[in-house]
């Protein structure tokens, strides 16, 4: 008799290993849209970069000294946990269009504790969403760039409005000279 397929069991142990390693933390249009609504975009945009050495360019979160720049290693927590990227919500699961795969066999949450049906659906949905977003994002890079630009301008205007009049005048003079 054929062995039954093992059920995926996962409970995150909050060990931080996936945040303290160098991997491609891909950012999708859905992340950018959500971040521009909830303000997370201002915390992340200086840490985003476009990787274009693959066939299809991708937007990714930077890491530094072997850890994601959004990770607070002392507190062992993600600084944007409540709005973390889809790829992190799906970790360590991945959907390739036909089946689920384990992205990281070394994840300490695998085979730990009891997996609720709700938890299973949540992580499966995140993995499927990540897969769908890969294509949507690659065909919408100009839209993402314009969203980022719009947010940078919005932030700059907010900061400019907070400046004392004297500073505003200095900036106006600089613009007049460079015009
Ligand atoms: S997803 Fe896995 S590697 Fe990442 S913090 Fe949770 S248990 Fe650790
Ligand atoms: S965004 Fe957050 S959850 Fe994702 S790798 Fe960075 S610190 Fe970890």
List keywords for this structure.
179 residues; alpha+beta; three-stranded antiparallel sheet; two-stranded antiparallel ribbon; binds iron/sulfur cluster
Task: Note down, in words, how this protein is organized.
By secondary structure, the chain is of the alpha+beta class. The chain has six helices and nine strands. The strands form four sheets. Strands 1-3-2 form a three-stranded antiparallel sheet. It has one domain (26-178). The chain has helices at 29-38, 41-44, 86-90, 117-138, 141-162, 165-178, and strands at residues 26-27, 48-51, 58-61, 63-64, 67-68, 71-72, 77-78, 93-95, 100-102. The radius of gyration is 20 Å and the shape is elongated. Helix 1 (29-38) packs parallel to helix 5 (141-162). One iron/sulfur cluster (SF4) binds at residues 12-18, 91-92, 107-109. One iron/sulfur cluster is lined by residues 12-18, 91-92, 107-109.
């Amino acid at each position: 008799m054929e062995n039954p397929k093992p059920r995926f069991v996962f409970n995150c142990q909050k060990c931080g290993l996936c945040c303290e390693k160098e991997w491609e933390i891909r950012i999708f249009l859905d992340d950018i849209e959500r971040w521009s609504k909830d303000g997370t975009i201002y915390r992340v945009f200086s840490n985003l970069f476009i990787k274009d050495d693959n066939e299809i360019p991708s937007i990714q979160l930077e890491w530094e000294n072997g850890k994601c720049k959004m990770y607070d290693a002392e507190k062992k927590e993600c600084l944007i946990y409540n709005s973390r990227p889809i790829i992190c919500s799906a970790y360590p699961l991945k959907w390739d269009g036909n089946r689920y795969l384990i992205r990281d066999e070394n994840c300490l949450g695998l085979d730990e504790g009891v997996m609720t049906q709700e938890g299973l659906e949540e992580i499966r949905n995140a993995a499927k969403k990540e897969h769908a977003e890969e294509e949507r994002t690659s065909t919408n890079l100009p839209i993402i760039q314009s969203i980022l630009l719009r947010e940078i301008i919005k932030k700059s205007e907010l900061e400019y409005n907070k400046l004392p009049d004297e500073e505003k005048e200095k900036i106006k003079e600089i613009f007049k000279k460079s015009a």
